[in-house]
Design goal:
By secondary structure, the protein is an alpha+beta fold. The mean pLDDT is 95.
Length: 69
């Protein structure tokens, strides 16, 4: 039996958008994220980006946030 569709919670949608964008070479376009969700990424995940950049797992490239090799 096919389950009925259900709405996606805003927090889940934000997480999925980030997760899927980080799979791309370009990464997550930060200004597009802020426009779509009404606030910058840092407001939803305070301090997380800075910690991951400091560990060398993420890098900022202009308006993009992407995984490091």
């Amino acid at each position: 039996m096919i389950e009925p569709l259900r709405p996606v919670a805003p927090a889940d949608l934000r997480f999925e958008r980030i997760f899927m964008a980080l799979r791309l070479t370009a990464g997550l376009e930060l200004s597009a994220f802020a426009a779509e969700f009404g606030a910058p990424l840092e407001q939803f995940y305070p301090g997380l980006v800075e910690r991951l950049v400091a560990r060398g797992w993420l890098e900022r490239a202009g308006d993009y946030l992407r995984l490091t090799p």
